[in-house]
Design goal:
Blueprint lengths: L2 H13 L1 H23 L8 H22 L7 H22 L4 H17 L3 H21 L6 H56 L10 H18 L7 E9 L2 H8 L1 H18 L5 E6 L2 E9 L4 H13 L3 E2 L5 E2 L3 E8 L11 H17 L5 E6 L4 H11 L9 E4 L3
Parallel strand pairs: 6-7
Antiparallel strand pairs: 1-3, 1-6, 2-3, 4-5, 7-8
Helix pairs in contact: 2-3, 2-4, 2-5, 3-4, 4-5, 4-6, 5-7, 6-7, 9-10, 10-11
């Protein structure tokens, strides 16, 4: 048996009161009748020794069987353990006295003492067993008139010493087990606290402190999975696209210069709330930087992008932002967007980062068109294999020479 299995078995045996009582009772049942036949002819052993042995064994067996048959009694197992062992500790010193200090009976008494120590988990029970054993031995030897003989004084001393050693070992075991439990509890608590602290740090590292929205680091950690899923679904389902919306507050610097940076923070937090009104909980809302936000809608249709962009624009422009002391300020936003995969029939022609760059160019074009509007980018007439190269060369001019299709409000 391996060390791990031995350790598991030992812990199971120690923690199972029913198993401990059952094994201990079996030892008692085997121990007492055997000693009766071996020592039955020993001088000084009265005929009632067999009755004492059988009574102790019967009580032990009855308690064990009761716990096995009625599991609900196991909640009382510590007290039943004490009831189980007390007949034994009463019978053992009587037999020691009756044996005339027979070494076998004394050795058996010490074995029982160790068995008693293994059967208990409470210091109070050790004390009760020790006091009962010594008290019964003193009283019984005095009743027989042999209390002051050297042999029985020796038996008393040996029996008491055996139980004292067993009790001390049991108390030490209890303390070790208690220390182990406390240590495991401390380790478990510290591990949980560390896990919670790490989770909080991880959450803080991917969250914008002002708005509570996600940040660029979060997008870098989570978007690759969404991109892979979108590529797998391309051509199979109608709502397999990722839509990238770059949203920028118009003339935000004027708000800060006129009303102060606290007012600017209030506008940004209300901007967060208005974006949440338009987009779904499953979408990624990211503070891209300053007054700029990036929204990634998952499992979407590129044909819905114009309607979504219009709803986002209207949510910002149609009602003023509340500032301190009852002040209000009107604001608008410009939006640029593009879908991924950018070319549905050639999904690897552009990466998601290149699509975000296209959305940024579309946003720039929306600013040029007077702000408070949106512009989308879609694939034009260029072959997909040459698209990335032409975009790198042309830049914003790709919106004007047919390389890209420009999506505008009607």
């Amino acid at each position: 048996m391996s060390d791990d299995r031995k350790g598991s078995y030992r812990r199971w045996l120690e923690r199972s009161s029913t198993t401990t009582i059952f094994v201990y009772s079996a030892l008692i049942i085997a121990f007492f009748p055997a000693f009766h036949f071996v020592l039955g002819a020993t001088p000084g052993v009265p005929p009632d020794s067999l009755a004492l042995r059988v009574a102790a064994a019967a009580i032990a067996a009855a308690v064990s069987l009761a716990l096995l048959v009625a599991p609900r009694l196991r909640r009382y197992s510590p007290n039943l353990q004490l009831l189980n062992v007390l007949p034994t500790v009463i019978a053992s010193p009587i037999l020691v006295v009756n044996s005339g200090n027979n070494p076998s009976y004394i050795a058996g008494s010490l074995i029982l003492a160790i068995g008693v120590q293994q059967a208990f988990y409470r210091t109070r029970d050790f004390v009760i067993v020790l006091a009962t054993t010594l008290g019964v031995e003193v009283l019984y030897s005095a009743m027989r008139g042999v209390f002051f003989t050297p042999a029985n004084l020796n038996a008393l001393a040996l029996t008491g010493s055996g139980f004292f050693v067993a009790m001390s070992a049991g108390i030490l075991r209890l303390r070790v087990q208690r220390n182990e439990r406390e240590l495991r509890s401390i380790v478990r608590d510290r591990t949980r606290e560390l896990s919670e602290a790490n989770a909080k740090l991880e959450e803080m590292s991917v969250t914008d402190p002002l708005t509570g929205l996600r940040n660029r680091r979060f997008l870098a950690q989570h978007l690759e999975f969404e991109v892979s899923a979108a590529l797998r679904r391309t051509g199979d389902v109608p709502d397999a696209d990722l839509l990238f919306f770059l949203i920028d507050l118009d003339h935000f610097k004027t708000v800060n210069d006129t009303h102060g940076h606290n007012a600017g923070d209030l506008v940004l937090m209300q901007m967060r709330d208005r974006l949440r009104e338009v987009f779904r909980e499953s979408d990624f809302l990211v503070r891209w930087g300053g007054e700029e936000f990036l929204v990634v809608t998952r499992s979407s249709r590129r044909h819905d992008a114009c309607d979504i962009a219009e709803r986002a624009r209207a949510a910002v422009a149609q009602r003023p932002f509340a500032l301190e002391r009852g002040q209000r300020v009107n604001a608008s936003c410009s939006i640029g967007f593009a879908a991924f995969p950018f070319v549905p029939y050639s999904p690897l022609s552009l990466s998601w980062m290149q699509v975000v760059a296209l959305a940024d160019r579309a946003l720039y074009l929306a600013k040029e068109r007077g702000r408070n509007t949106w512009v989308g980018a879609a694939a034009g007439r260029v072959e997909p294999d040459a698209l990335a190269e032409r975009l790198a060369i042309l830049g914003i001019d790709a919106f004007h020479d047919g390389t890209l299709e420009v999506l505008l409000p009607k």
